[in-house]
Specification:
Blueprint: H1 24-29, H2 31-42, E1 45-50, E2 53-58, H3 61-70, E3 75-76, H4 79-89, H5 98-108, H6 114-117, H7 121-133, E4 140-142, H8 143-160, H9 167-186, H10 199-225, H11 232-238, H12 250-263, H13 266-281, H14 283-297, H15 311-323, E5 330-334, E6 338-340, E7 343-345, E8 350-353, H16 355-358, H17 378-382, H18 402-419, E9 420-424, E10 432-434, E11 438-440, E12 445-450
Parallel strand pairs: 2-8
Antiparallel strand pairs: 1-2, 3-5, 4-12, 5-8, 6-7, 9-12, 10-11
Helix pairs in contact: 4-9, 7-8, 7-18, 8-13, 9-10, 10-12, 13-15, 13-18, 14-18, 15-18
The structure holds protoporphyrin IX containing FE.
Protoporphyrin IX containing FE is lined by residues 93-94, 105, 259-260, 263-264, 267-268, 271, 325-327, 330, 391-393, 397, 399-401, 404-405.
Length: 451
C-alpha cells in the first residue's frame, strides 16, 4: 500500500537525550545497547540525538532496500566518513560515489569473482596449517591475536605476494592503529580537524607516511621488473580501463590496494574468533561440524573442490555473521531531502544501518539470540527475507570481498577442526566490543587439544 504525502509523519520517534550532547555519551560508551534499545522500542525506524542532530536507525528490510538500493543515489557515504577516511584511503572504491565508484568497481570486481579467488584457496589452507603447527598441545593461545595474525598473513600474500613476519605485519599494525583513530573520531562530534597538529593527529599522519612508503616501494618494484608475481597488486597494475588507453596511476593503485588490505583482514579475523568461541560454547554444533569434516576430508587439507561437500561448516560461519556481524553498523547521508517510508528525511541527515540490530529482530529471526546454524540450511535459507541478513551490506557498495571472506571462513574452519579442538579457558561469557569491527571484549583464551 502506498502512503500519500499527507500521511508523512513530521518526526521520527527518538530516545531521549541530554541537552546539547543528546546521546553522544551513550554512543561512545554503550553503542550496541543504544542501537538495540532503539530497535526494541521503535522497530522499523527510530532515532538518537547526535549533539543537536537527529540520526535515524533504519531497521527493516524494506527501508534498508530503499536506502541502499532504490535511493542509493540520494543516500551516499557521509561527509564525516569521507573527511576522515580520505587521508588514509584516498578516493578509493570505499569512499567514492556515482560514475567514479562504478568505474572503480568495474576495475576491481574481476579480481574478486569466484573463478579468481579459487586461486587463493591454497594460500588460505597452507597458511592455516602452518600457523596451527606453532601451537603446542595443552598450550593456551589468545585466539583474537592468532586469527588476526592468520588473516593478515593471507591478505598480505594475496595482495602483495608478501611472506609473513616481514614489513607487512608492521604495515598491519600501523593500519590497525590508524583505523582505531578513525573510529574514535567518527563517533566524536567534537573532533578537531585532521589538519591540526595535535599529538594524536601527528601520530596518525606519521603512521600513514610509513604505510605509503611501503606500498609505493612495492608498486615501484612491480612496475620496474614487470614480472607477474601472481599477486593482486601485479594484476591491478596491469589492468587497463575500458578504452585500453591508460592504466592505474600509482596513487589509484595505492588507494585501492590499501582499501582491500584494511577491509580484508580484521573483519574476517573477528568473525572467525566469534565462530570458535560460539562453537566452544555449543559442543553439539562443534561435534556436528567436525564430523562433517572428518567424513569428507579424512584428515587431509580441504581444497576448493571440497567446499560444496562441507555445507554445514559454511552454515556455522554464516550464523556467526548473523549474531556477530563484524561491520555492526554503517552510515549514509541524504544528499537531498527525501521520503523514507512514512517519514520525511531532511537534506544532510545521516542515517545508520546496523546489521547487528536487524539480525536480532525476532520478527525476522525467531529466538534471535540462539546460535542456530540450521537457519542457513538449504531450505531454511530460502525463507530469509531479502535485506534482513546483511553482514556484507547491500546495493552498490556491497562488500567486494564477500566471496573471498566466505571462502576464507569456510576453509579455515574446516582446516582447523580437522586438526585440533579449541577449549575455551577464559572467563566468560564474552561480550562484544564495538571498535572498528565488533570484537570480543578481552582475551579469548583457548586451550589447544590435538586430535
Ligand atoms: C567477514 C568478513 C567481511 C565482512 C563482514 C565485510 C563487510 C562489509 C560491509 C558491510 C561492507 C559495506 C559497507 C558500506 O556499505 O558502507 C563492505 C565493503 C567492502 N568490503 Fe567487505 N567485509 C568482509 C571482508 C572483506 C574482504 C575479505 C575484502 C577484500 C579482500 C573486503 C573488501 C571490501 C571492499 C573493497 C568494500 C567496499 C566496497 C564498495 O564500497 O563498493 N571485505 N564489507
Amino acid at each position: 500500500m502506498t502512503t500519500t504525502s499527507s500521511q508523512i509523519h513530521s518526526s521520527i520517534p527518538a530516545v531521549p537525550g541530554l541537552p546539547l550532547l543528546g546521546n553522544v555519551l551513550a554512543l561512545r560508551r554503550e553503542r550496541l545497547e543504544l542501537l538495540l534499545r532503539i530497535s526494541h522500542e521503535f522497530g522499523d525506524i527510530g532515532a538518537f540525538h547526535f549533539g543537536p542532530r537527529l540520526v535515524p536507525l533504519v531497521n527493516s528490510p524494506e527501508l534498508i532496500r530503499q536506502v541502499l538500493v532504490d535511493q542509493n543515489a540520494t543516500f551516499q557515504k557521509t561527509a564525516t566518513v569521507r573527511a576522515l577516511g580520505t587521508p588514509v584511503l584516498g578516493n578509493s572504491v570505499f569512499l567514492s560515489e556515482g560514475e567514479e565508484h562504478h568505474r572503480q568497481r568495474k576495475l576491481l570486481s574481476p579480481h574478486f569473482q569466484h573463478s579468481r579467488i579459487s586461486h587463493y584457496a591454497e594460500i588460505m589452507t597452507q597458511f592455516t596449517a602452518r600457523l596451527q603447527e606453532t601451537w603446542e598441545e595443552g598450550g593456551t593461545i589468545n585466539l583474537t591475536d592468532e586469527m588476526m595474525r592468520l588473516t593478515l598473513w593471507i591478505i598480505s600474500k594475496v595482495l602483495f605476494d608478501a611472506d609473513v613476519f616481514g614489513e607487512e605485519s608492521e604495515l598491519g599494525e600501523v593500519l590497525t592503529y590508524t583505523f582505531r583513530h578513525f573510529t574514535d573520531e567518527v563517533t566524536n562530534p567534537l573532533h578537531l580537524p585532521q589538519s591540526w597538529p595535535t599529538p594524536r593527529n601527528q601520530r596518525a599522519r606519521r603512521a600513514i607516511n610509513r604505510v605509503n612508503t611501503t606500498i609505493y616501494r612495492m608498486i615501484k618494484e612491480r612496475r620496474q621488473n614487470g614480472k607477474d608475481r601472481g599477486d593482486f597488486l601485479s594484476a591491478l597494475l596491469r589492468t587497463e580501463d575500458e578504452e585500453h588507453t591508460s592504466s592505474l596511476s600509482d596513487l589509484q593503485a595505492r588507494n585501492e590496494t590499501l582499501s582491500l588490505f584494511v577491509a580484508g583482514h580484521e573483519t574476517t579475523a573477528t568473525a572467525l574468533t566469534w565462530c570458535w568461541y560460539l562453537l566452544s560454547q555449543h559442543p553439539e554444533i562443534y561435534a556436528k561440524m567436525r564430523e562433517e569434516g572428518d567424513r569428507v576430508l579424512a584428515g587431509r587439507l580441504p581444497t576448493l573442490a571440497d567446499v560444496p561437500n562441507l555445507p554445514y561448516t559454511l552454515q556455522v560461519f554464516k550464523e556467526t555473521l548473523r549474531l556477530y556481524p563484524p561491520v555492526y553498523a554503517f552510515t549514509r547521508g541524504a544528499t537531498s531531502s527525501v521520503r523514507l517510508g512514512d517519514y520525511f528525511i531532511p537534506k544532510g541527515t545521516s542515517v545508520v544501518i546496523s546489521p547487528y540490530t536487524i539480525h536480532r529482530r525476532s520478527s525476522l529471526f525467531p529466538d534471535p539470540e540462539r546460535f542456530d546454524p540450521e537457519r542457513f540450511g538449504l531450505q531454511q535459507e530460502q525463507n530469509i527475507i531479502r535485506y534482513s541478513y546483511i553482514p556484507f551490506g547491500a546495493g552498490s557498495h556491497m562488500c567486494l570481498g564477500m566471496h573471498f571472506a566466505l571462502l576464507e571462513g569456510h576453509l579455515l574452519l574446516a582446516t582447523l577442526a580437522q586438526r585440533l579442538t579449541f577449549e575455551f579457558v577464559g572467563s566468560g561469557p564474552i561480550e562484544p566490543e564495538p571498535l572498528l569491527t565488533l570484537r570480543p571484549k578481552g582475551k579469548v583464551s583457548m586451550r589447544i587439544r590435538r586430535r
